[in-house]
Amino acid sequence: MSDAVDADHVVVALDVGGTGMKCALVRPDGVTVRTERHPTDASRGPTAVVGAILDVAEGLADKARADGLTPIAVGIAVPGVVDEARGVAVWSANVGFRDVPLRDLAVRRLGLPTTLGHDVRVGGLAEARLGAGRGTGHVLFVAIGTGIAAAHVVDGRAAVGAHDAAGEIGHILVRPDGPRCGCGRPGCLEAIASASAIGRRYAELAGATADAPVTAAEVAERAAAGEPLASEVWQEAVEALADGLATGQALYDVATIVLGGGLAQAGDRLLTPLRAALHERMTFHREPRLVAAALGDEAGCLGAALLALDAVRVRDHQEKR
Ligand SMILES: [Zn+2]
Hints:
Elements: E1 9-16, E2 20-26, E3 32-39, H1 46-66, E4 70-78, E5 81-83, E6 88-91, E7 98-100, H2 102-110, E8 114-118, H3 119-130, E9 138-144, E10 148-154, E11 157-158, H4 190-193, H5 195-206, H6 216-224, H7 228-252, E12 256-260, H8 268-281, E13 289-292, H9 299-320
Parallel strand pairs: 1-4, 4-8, 9-12, 12-13
Antiparallel strand pairs: 1-2, 2-3, 5-6, 6-7, 9-10, 10-11
Helix pairs in contact: 1-2, 3-9, 5-6, 5-7, 6-7, 7-8
The structure holds zinc ion.
């Protein structure tokens, strides 16, 4: 990000999730100058959510101008299936989008060039360029939360796929006789190793002795404290993750795997056994560096801004020719 750009330029960046929107003004050098959070309140329905997104984006652009800054672009990240080329939020379970032309709606409202990105792909973009994968070229970013998704980033670009669905590493088959996944098939990685799957599995095995719903973080803590049941569930998840990541490494041969999402907050309780399990699975493949994400929940906003800046640069370049 060394292009000569005006120091007062900012990108209006929004990372829209099922419950909240993280919003920021991001300078072209990746520095955030203002952050805001707003509720998404998806229960209001997609039309109201789209209205809120546009209001928040416009409000941020106005605040930038009031501070003497120049908004040059808008970057919006959303979950689900995203058609980046057309700027359409195709489908999202937790926000309720069905074929929403968010990019064009934002362009019409704000009069600024806008890009629409997928939340995990832009998060991976940010981690690869500004965070834990910085300087390593080939990065696999894996977000482990209620589901598991990944972004494969090569030289600062995240692959989108032919049908906008690259990176669905959570649906790699790891246990053919395992629990049924949300996608309908038994044995997917995310049915065993997502944060929600870990909590569910623990509750299932604990049966009547379970006190209350147990989160994956608590399972990690209890495993570290030596509780046999928690250790068993945690190890099952680690082994499944190692199988999934080994498949990822066989496909992509990356230098660095960056783990993000809620489960990565377990830190060394996850990374240490996972590194060992991944190491065991490497035959002739080169072992990737396995690290925790560095940007926390800012990654989505930063990545949305990076994607928007990339689009602006491509456009400027084309106009000069
Ligand atoms: Zn699945």
